[in-house]
Amino acid sequence: MNELKLSILDLLKEDARLSAATIATMLGAAEEEVSAAIAEMERDNVIVKYATVVNWSKVDDEKVTALIEVNCTPERGRGFENIAERVYLYPEVKSVYLMSGAFDLLVEIEGKNLKEVASFVSNKLSTIESVISTKTFFILKKYKQDGIIFEEIEDDHRLLVSP
């Protein structure tokens, strides 16, 4: 991948709303060249989606997010591929990662409430024949996501104390 495309990706990762014209100006490139590079990266699935980071704690419709460690038995010839595919096809699953260390897969899911998440783990995830065990962690509060800090940093209004 050439340097122009990498620079475009860096800029779009920070702000997906940037236009090709703005990116071209920022990089000192021709707008047509930037537009063509973006179109090519979209076509090749390098750019998969343009997304918005939402601070759900500021919205009344708060969601429950859980991270689930999954231990499973890999399948001969396919490893963890089939298991990961079965898991990521569920609509409540937001991310699935193959991990090194104490567990095999890390699954991020989102539900309306704790009961919905628990139901997913007990009725869908743990019933997959290759799954040996799961460990669920509920996210209580997000401080930072995708490089975005959610909390406003307050100034320290205490009086200085000097000896």
From TrEMBL:
Domain HTH asnC-type: 1-81
InterPro entries, per the entry: AsnC-type_HTH_dom (IPR000485), Dimeric_a/b-barrel (IPR011008), HTH-Siroheme_Decarb (IPR050684), Tscrpt_reg_AsnC-like (IPR019888), Tscrpt_reg_AsnC/Lrp_C (IPR019887), WH-like_DNA-bd_sf (IPR036388), WH_DNA-bd_sf (IPR036390)
Keywords tagged on the record: DNA-binding, Transcription, Transcription regulation
MF GO annotations: sequence-specific DNA binding
Organism domain of life: Bacteria
SUPFAM superfamilies: Dimeric alpha+beta barrel (SSF54909), Winged helix' DNA-binding domain (SSF46785)
Pfam families: AsnC_trans_reg, HTH_24
UniProt protein name: DNA-binding Lrp family transcriptional regulator
Taxonomic lineage: Bacteria, Bacillati, Bacillota, Bacilli, Bacillales
